[in-house]
Amino acid sequence: MSKSKNVLTALLVLVIVTVVGFFSQIITFLSDYNWFKEVGYTSTFIKQIFSKLYIAVPIFLILGVLIYIYLIGIKKSYYLHMNVVTSKEEEKPIKIITFLGTIIISLLFSLRISSSLWMEILQFTNSTSFNIKDPIFNNDISFYVFKLPLVNQILNIIVGLLVFLFIITIAYYLMLASFKKGNKFDDNVRNLHDMSNIGDTLKNVVNLALNQIAVIGVAFFIIIAIKSYLASFELLYSPRGVAYGASYTDININLWMYRVSAIVALVSAVFVVIAYKKRRLRTLLIGPIILIVISIGSSVVQTGVQNFVVSPNEIAKEKKFLEYNIDYTKNAYNLNEVKEENFLAEQNISIEDILKNDQTIRNISINDYRPTNETYNQIQTLRPYYNFKDVDIDRYMIDGKLNQVFLSAREIDQNRLDEQAQTWLNKHIKYTHGYGLTMSPVNEITPGGEPKMIIKDIPPVSLVEGLNVERPEIYFGELTNDYIVTNTSEKEFDYPKGETNAFSEYGGKAGINLTLFNRILYSIDQGSLKFLVAGSIDSNSKIILNRNIEKRVQKIAPFLSFDDDPYLVVSEGKMYWMIDGYTYTSKYPYSQPYSNNGINYIRNSFKVVIDAYDGTTDFYIADKNDPMINTYAKIFPDLFKSMDDMPEGIKSHIRYPQTIFDIQAKIYETYHMKDTEVFYNKEDKWEVAKKSKNTQSQEEGESLDIESNYITFRLPNEDEAEFLLTIPYTPQSKQNMTALFVARNDEDKYGQLIVYKFPKDKNILGPEQIEAKIDKDPEISKDLTQWNTGGSTVIRGTLLTIPIENSILYVEPLYIKSDAQNSIPAVEKIFVAYKDKVVMKDTLEQALNTMFKSDNQNVIIDETTDESDVDLDKDQLIKKANDLYNKAGSSLKDGDFEAYGRHLNELGDILNKLANQ
Question: For residue 213, what pLDDT is reported?
Fold first, then answer.
């Protein structure tokens, strides 16, 4: 009975110690489990947690048994050599130390392996074939991406373990000597217990431990042999040659060096056995000395072959390796199917061409997203605690026509609450959500030069049929960083309503019910007793966690990579967030890394959609041909859905992401060249066009790549305009334009890449040259200087490169912003550049009509009725009146009587409003 009580007491103590020791981890686990259950990804969470356990436990048990047997063997060897006789009582402390040492060593190594390699192990066991083999060893690419990295890491861990075992062996012998003094000395072991001379003591211990050291040495050299053999595969990532990947010298010299080294390492293991048997240290050193000689000799031979064999005839020697590099790099970046088309660049646009391309003209952006974001925050936040984090670019059907728009979510930023109002109640119960959005076409401005808003205000007012927002609350967004508690007895602030506020109660499905247990759990997890003492919280209340959409997706799938620029989508009266996701690796053979991080393969393999109201988060596979995302799908079968399951209203807004497009554009600067000789000499290398330092606040002399832009226009040989992503190229170190790179976004053409190559015998002005022409124009320069002084600042917008038929047109907006506090940047002029000519006018319509003059035809761009001046104050109306007066004068000067009459009518409306105030 007493034994049973002792066992129960021991178990109870063990449970208490475990709970106390791992209390924080237990709380985190329970909290996370509740949350993953709420969002519907319990199996993904369990797989992440228990995969580590499934790996750690067997490794721990196997290592534990092997190390324990190893230490027991050392003890028996010591007792045998030293003629030790011991009793059970004397053995007890040694057994305890041996057991605890085994547990600690096994635990450390098993935790290291399971925590750092769990995903690699799962990828190894679930790998998907690339169906592409490397050109040297004929292995599928999956071997290098999913298998070889794990094998190399395990071998490194084993080497570390062997070194650790050597140290443990010496330490264990010293421990045994301190516990049990022998009755006789072995011939090779003298004065082991005399600790006065540590050098002699260690020498004696080494002599005694020769059996174990020999075993460790043999195992060490076998591992070195395996690593040397596997190192030959690393030649596929060699940076030594004229292009990334194994070169002539690598294949003919370094490959054989690795193979010879592997054989020598195996021979070294044999020398270890011979040295042990014959007690000859010199024999032990033969193998390492040969390995050093091989390493030095191979370096000399490499240099000789490279300088005297390869360099004199480098193109011929490296030709096939250059071909490998070109082919595999294009495959790795999905550039192997880029469609190349010749663009005649005839530069013969007529007024008829402009009228024919009305879809393109109607979608030319005369707004820039940066000033637009500033404008939204100035006139549409409506309260200081609202914020528009950034402006997204997308396309919507408006009145049956494709329209490119800017849009941004009006999120609540609790940091902008008055300092005294930043209480726990306000931050977690009252001010819980943002409200609505602002949307404006890229091609329309008000008479005051501000974006023409088609969705605005609180509650959201839509001027477009079919773009109503019926669920405007934003509980999940880019600025929602705190947890909230909903369905309490305290009503949530919904939106400002005149002199008062409107209140609401959350009706979505997000949140975890705050039962008594959960109230205790989250009071500990969140470090707040308010969950227990707040009278407004009851069993009907819910806590909503991880509301920041970027942190939310990373919490669900920390093993994936996400774009850092989510964008807003409006569909069927609701608001959603779309986040692009990527898979990548640095282990694609022969593929050129795009930056110093070594990554040389990337795919936009999945997309995530998050409901802004209830937080529903869905992962969709966007590239079903990507082996990496298919491998993740095997590991986490409940995480991903097919793109076919994405609602059509959301699917129509998928975009080809700028992140991967910019990477592809940089790689394609060099890898558009197919001929190896041209590639070798970099004769036709391109560069992404540079942007003028005048358009951004850059330091003098700085030159930055132009930003890729979403533009809506009609591609050559297509009937309708499309929403496209583009970037222009110039020849290396030159400014004239040589090509235009385009990515398509529409669902049935999504991801198609086209490069339009310009004739080499024509000089088509590039973006920097156009900017220079704008700056050098006497009239324009004079106006810019005048506007940039006297309390105002000129802001140059993005210069757009727009194909029209077989010609190129440039358009750029110019903003003027008063230096007064809280002033709003306003579009003052529009630049249009074509051939060698630049015009600056009040509107795009005027600029086009001036550029392409015609006696009987004029460009007329549809404009909707402006309702944006209804709520303007007196000063704003006066500013508009002054702007319209100036525009009417400019139109009269240009002989554009139609625009002159329109501006006068608008001026009359403004004056009437002023009279009635």
Answer: 83
